[in-house]
Design brief:
Catalytic activity (chain A): pretRNA = a 3'-half-tRNA molecule with a 5'-OH end + a 5'-half-tRNA molecule with a 2',3'-cyclic phosphate end + an intron with a 2',3'-cyclic phosphate and a 5'-hydroxyl terminus
Helix content of chain B: 25-40%
Strand content of chain B: 25-35%
Domain TSEN34 N-terminal (chain A): 2-65
Oligomer: heterodimer
Domain tRNA intron endonuclease catalytic (chain A): 195-278
Distance between the termini of chain A: 52 Å
Number of helices of chain A: 8
Strand content of chain A: 15-25%
Helix content of chain A: 25-40%
Largest interface: A-B, 35 and 35 residues
CATH architecture of chain B: 3-Layer(aba) Sandwich
Protein name (chain A): tRNA-intron lyase
Radius of gyration of chain B: 14 Å
Order of helices and strands of chain B: HHEEEEHEE
Distance between the termini of chain B: 40 Å
EC number (chain A): 4.6.1.16
Number of domains of chain B: 1
């Protein structure tokens, strides 16, 4: 959607990370920790280079999700509605059981409540008399007001359980077919092609890649799962051997890398040989 | 510059590459006199119009290669590759970056993915 690719299924996310060492970033709110954004959940968003790589390696396909939600038939809607009602009844039943099991109010509490009710009645009677109205009928016995029947609507993360979801006409197994359909645009220029090429090359060497913005590079390169290792490298990509590079950039990258106990990797992409050459930059330690 | 004692060692390259003459001179002096390297030699790098300085750090036995350049210059990945190949493909080179205020910094460039030195 909107030229970004999302993964919604938790099992898929697990496979992507453990089997194909592609990490991605979580962008969804966690339902039981919704008031913070330090820990996020499904859906996972993928970097465009990760998407290109996964599709080219036939690990993943692109699905035009909005188009896959077809117009449901009356029968399908009725079935869905019945299912939702069933779930709601189940929730209410569970809530009722929970309320009954809650501890009964102590004697003290009951007495205090009766006193409060009496005070309230007296005050109301005074007000009515002052206004010249006749005393209204005494309110009902001090029973607590009925609880609003509250239940939660559950919206499933994955679209596939819906009967009217059918993606057979909008699944794209190649980047070019997705581009033709207008669903996807990346890579569209040399800079983006260079990023895809470098990503693929680093992946094939067994590295995990994360976003590099924290350390001023294009990627953070980990020798294994990011949960287990600190990154060894921050990488920046030069799109061609002729692309200009100033000594100031070498100083900046080298210094930042050394100070954070990483090396900076300069990845040079050659669009003609489709090969990547690496140079690791470190401060020399003297001079 | 010509009256400086170091000039003799550099006499064959400085007039040939006038643009890089300043940074070659500055780096040579720093390596020889401030860093006190031994077996200091000057190697011509025609493909990138300058000369490199090679030598050994005090109390070590590996020959290291230093390529001087100025902060004001614009390099490229291809330029760095040429430097490597003309020096006989050493595993690493040091880029000496000079500037007008006489400051000089050295950065180590290694070929391939080399883990940081702890």
């Amino acid at each position: 959607a909107n030229k970004k690719a999302f993964v919604w299924d938790v099992d898929d996310i697990a496979t992507l990370r453990s089997k194909h060492h592609v990490c991605g970033i979580f962008t969804g709110t966690l339902p039981h920790l919704s008031q913070q954004n330090l820990f996020l959940g499904v859906p996972m968003v993928l970097m465009p280079e990760e998407v290109v790589f996964l599709v080219e390696n036939e690990i993943a396909v692109l699905v035009d999700d909005p188009k896959a939600h077809l117009q449901p038939s009356i029968a399908e809607l009725q079935r869905w509605s019945a299912q939702e009602k069933e779930l709601t009844q189940l929730q209410l039943a569970q809530l009722a059981v929970a309320a009954k099991d809650s501890p009964e109010m102590s004697e003290e509490a009951v007495k205090k409540r009766k006193e409060r009710e009496a005070k309230r009645k007296a005050a109301a009677a005074q007000a009515a008399a002052a206004a010249g109205e006749s005393l209204f009928t005494p309110p009902a016995d001090g029973a607590p007001p009925p609880q609003d029947s509250q239940y939660s609507m559950i919206i499933p993360a994955s679209s596939t359980p819906f009967e009217w979801y059918n993606d057979s006409t909008c699944v794209y197994t190649t980047i070019s077919s997705a581009k033709q359909a207008g669903l996807w645009e990346y890579p569209s220029n040399l800079q983006e092609r260079a990023k895809c090429g470098v990503f693929r090359d680093l992946w094939e060497q067994g590295m995990f890649m994360g976003g590099g913005i924290r350390f001023g590079g294009d990627y953070l390169v980990y020798p294994g799962d990011p949960l287990r290792y600190h990154a060894h490298f921050s990488a920046s990509i030069l799109e061609s051997p002729a692309f200009s590079l100033t000594p100031m950039e070498i100083v900046a990258h080298g210094r930042l890398g050394t100070v954070t106990k990483k090396s900076h990797l300069l990845c040079g992409w050659d669009d003609e040989t489709k090969a990547v050459t690496y140079l690791s930059i470190e401060w020399a330690g003297f001079g | 510059m010509e009256k400086h004692p170091s000039y003799q060692a550099l006499a064959h390259v400085l007039p040939k590459y006038p643009r890089a003459a300043g940074c070659i001179f500055q780096t040579y002096n720093d390596i020889l006199l401030a860093q006190q390297w031994t077996e200091v030699q000057v190697v011509e790098l025609e493909s990138i119009s300058r000369a490199a300085i090679t030598g050994k750090k005090p109390k070590t036995d590996t020959t290291l290669h230093v390529v001087p350049c100025s902060l004001a210059e614009t390099l490229s990945f291809g330029w760095l590759m040429k430097a490597f190949s003309q020096l006989g493909d050493p595993p690493e080179i040091y880029l000496a970056i000079t500037s007008d205020d006489a400051s000089l910094v050295y950065y180590k460039l290694s070929r391939g993915i080399v883990k940081p030195h702890i």
